Amino acid sequence: MIDDHPMIIEGYQNTLLFTKKDNQELEIDIANNCDEAVVCMDKSVLNKRPYDVLFVDISLPPSTDGKMSSGEDLAEYARKILPDSKIIILTMFNESFRIHNIIKTIDPEGFMIKSDLTSSELASAFQAVLNNPPFYSGTVNSHIRKTIISDVVIDDKNRKILHLLSQGIKTKNLASHLDISLSAIEKRKKQLRDIFEVQDGQDETLLNQARKKGFV
To answer: pLDDT tens-digit profile of 8-31?
Structure first.
């Protein structure tokens, strides 16, 4: 279990130990940051006792070597060295872009927004991930449904442009975040305005329309 709030981990532990099946034995290791988590994962591989399940919080203190800045990086590392481990993502983030990106890059067996979380939901998620993954909490499912039912198809670059604009990044500063030219960004913004039928050319109007379709 990886989370930088010990009290939260204690709650997770107590819930799982109280609700586990009679035939299940739980051995739980705890890490509070990326460095501790890497040590635990590497050790599990070395000892040939790989973890069955990893609970990973997205907001974590970065590693001291700077290679990992969040739980997303940690989960990607886990996928490489613990390919058979099931990953459950827990996070406060609930923006469509972040959810979409986590599902695409990590494809977790469990994905829960902390504001959805109750003890019974966590217990259900744990058993579902063990026996019949994936398990997504209500907010995650809602964002997925909005994206699927929308008849709008946009690629990752366009999705990231919308996300950055929603964070208050100015168009002139988008290039440094996306590794494409300013003229290419302007073309993509025009495509987005056409897709979302925005007439006035205002970023806020574009974002409002994108929000309605679940893309921001």
So the answer is: 999 999 999 999 999 999 999 999
